[in-house]
Amino acid sequence: MAFSHPLARGAKVWPAVLLDGKTQHFLVIVTTIELDPNSKRYHEEMVERLSQAAQDYLDDSSEADGFILMNRLRDWDRNPDPMA
């Protein structure tokens, strides 16, 4: 069963090797919604809806141990202001 949600543009389970050498699997969810709470475009209710859907998916599935929300790479600020 794959994760799907209207606010998610893509999702995939990825393994992560921890410092102690163990492996954990994380559901990585790519979205176009603003994830920075300091941004004017941030909408807490949308982030909460997507987070709750991810948590529900994890509760129903044994594919991953946790989830990560991230924006598409092309949406990242290429020249962040270090003084901001």
In words, what does this structure look like?
The protein is α+β, with helices and mostly antiparallel strands. It has one domain (8-72). The chain contains 1 helix and 3 strands. The chain has one helix at 44-60; strands at 8-17, 23-31, 66-71. The chain has a 3-stranded mixed sheet, with helices on one face. A hairpin with a 5-residue loop joins strand 1 (8-17) and strand 2 (23-31). The longest helix is centred in the middle third of the chain and has 17 residues, at 44-60. The protein starts with 7 loop residues before the first strand and ends in a 13-residue tail after the last strand. The mean pLDDT is 89.
